[in-house]
């Protein structure tokens, strides 16, 4: 097995999965990386965040406040998606630039760790929709009832999910730093927050705090970074997870255990930035940059595979399927 390949549940490498549908030359062309594209996507994501802040700064009112929170929360998902690109070494041409930008410009601002995510995520690719899939816990509950889905969304939008997950992150960091008779002491606390995991997240967020204070007010970091991260980001992250693997078939067929969902302009703005909705195609050839996934999808459709693929007509339709279990 060559470097960068992984093994699917079928026992085939992801490169081989792609070759079931595309020629080597087609895959090579689709997998071409571009530093220019990588920088443009990172700048686009942060630029959209800046525009949302500018909207509130110029017209400060409850409506622009809510819009800023929603747009920034969606772009925090965008940062997570770009970190995902970097984890596959698909955002930039070099591994070093993927690691640096994925870590500092995408992952750490949203309290994510690129190296840990890469290990976790590649395991998901190797074992999609099997008992060894670390993401199975996200897709296994579906389909569920409408009431259950509403409760999940309510926990997300009210911050309960985000607070619980951030608390678990902090407790894990404290545990890794070392405990004294089950209780972290002051020295352990200092080690946890100066270590590579939490410490880098604090550095990144201190920079965001300083910038927001410089152009606005000290409370902007709480209102326009922490609040979106704990609320809207969690909601759209759940919708993304449901769309990708929720209520699909628990089989080895890569056209049936993963879903692509069509998304219009509004959904691309708020729920599915940076072509993340083409998830089935990503699983077929995971090192193809996201910008080329629509081309890969068109090739699949042109070659008559659409009827065999899990394709959601739109996100509301996918949520209807995911909540179709009788009460």
UniProtKB/TrEMBL annotation:
<dbReference type="InterPro" id="IPR005804">
    <property type="entry name" value="FA_desaturase_dom"/>
</dbReference>
<feature type="transmembrane region" description="Helical">
    <location>
        <begin position="65"/>
        <end position="83"/>
    </location>
</feature>
<feature type="transmembrane region" description="Helical">
    <location>
        <begin position="197"/>
        <end position="213"/>
    </location>
</feature>
<dbReference type="GO" id="GO:0016491">
    <property type="term" value="F:oxidoreductase activity"/>
</dbReference>
<keyword id="KW-0560">Oxidoreductase</keyword>
<feature type="transmembrane region" description="Helical">
    <location>
        <begin position="37"/>
        <end position="59"/>
    </location>
</feature>
<keyword id="KW-0472">Membrane</keyword>
<feature type="domain" description="Fatty acid desaturase">
    <location>
        <begin position="61"/>
        <end position="303"/>
    </location>
</feature>
<dbReference type="Pfam" id="PF00487">
    <property type="entry name" value="FA_desaturase"/>
</dbReference>
<keyword id="KW-1133">Transmembrane helix</keyword>
<protein>
    <submittedName>
        <fullName>Fatty acid desaturase family protein</fullName>
        <ecNumber>1.14.19.-</ecNumber>
    </submittedName>
</protein>
<keyword id="KW-0812">Transmembrane</keyword>
